[in-house]
Amino acid sequence: MTHMLELSANARLAERTLALETCDGIPAWMFHSMDPRFLEKLAGAPEGSYPNDPDGVYLAAQRAAGVCMIDQYLAGNVLSMGAHGYENGTAHQATTGAAHIELDGIIIDDADKVVEHLERIEFPKLEAQIAATAPSDDEAVARLIQGEQAMQAQFGPEILKAPYGEGWGGFPILRYGAYGYVHYLTAYVIYPEIMERDFALQADLYEKTNAIAARAIRKGNLPKVIRLDHDMADNSGPLVDIRSLERSWFPHFARSIKPLVDAGIRCIWHCDGNLMSMIPGLLEAGIRGFQGFQYEAGMDYERICKMTDRDGEPLMIWGGVSVTRTLPLGTPDEVRKEIKWLVENGPPVGLFLGGSSSITPGVPWANLEAMLEGLAYYRTHGHRG
Hints:
With 385 residues, the chain is α/β, with parallel strands linked by helices. 46% of the residues lie in helices and 9% in strands.
């Protein structure tokens, strides 16, 4: 792979692991603590300096943690929380207690208003975006490459930047984030034909944007991996009936990511909640790995790590210490034990270690330090440890 700068040993370890090579060490994925005090301490920065220099402190902390690869860059995200979680002034959104949801002059107060907004606003918008998007758009390809190269330059040679975010790996989503859970999921049940039309239009658009992304990855010689990130399950299972997803979502999902799959770009699915029932459909659609596991919700890490993709290759696994159980509620010894378990039961190649998701404020610092010690140990000892 060609880079604008010579990568360090840590970044090269990530690069080789993404290629499913056998490596002596296990790379660390991003260490996203949302406690600015711990990031300041880790970076060796003065207390209270994070708000004035979030990029500098965040990246210094990542380097000090021995992080080898970052896809989603979240330095600014830390500022959305205080030392004890979300502050009182944080604005409520559709899924976080908003008392009033109004979009484009339409008050979303029942399922019919969800459908009205989809048909009046969202569908025409999607149709216009589809018409305006061409996989042959060389300028769009160049913008994606330039954005990744700029981020890699900001990261420096120690941390590999992988594609993530707008323009990378789009696919049809459940729109609860805009309309709220109750109104959207009610509309999902009552108006299945409208929901499938939405999935179809989204897929029409993302087939094109993913073709652009695939071209950018190939032309820019970027890491051939994209993490697909959308929460579709809670602790009891998928947010909607799995049979409805099999009818109306999976076919359009598979179609939307096909340009990436066909180009040999490894699509990794972010796991949130218990989505064991979705895994067969995800693998059939072309997913080739998973990240972020809520073990306590029923995600069977050991079973998943023994699975293969639809071509019979090992799955890539970005395993993490539980941010909902072990890190906040456990002891340092339990943190060490969980990292060891992740390694012993993980795949022989393609394994990254980190947290299972964002690490919220309030986690005991001794647990975070134990996690970093474990990441450092396996980064040098690998599966031999």
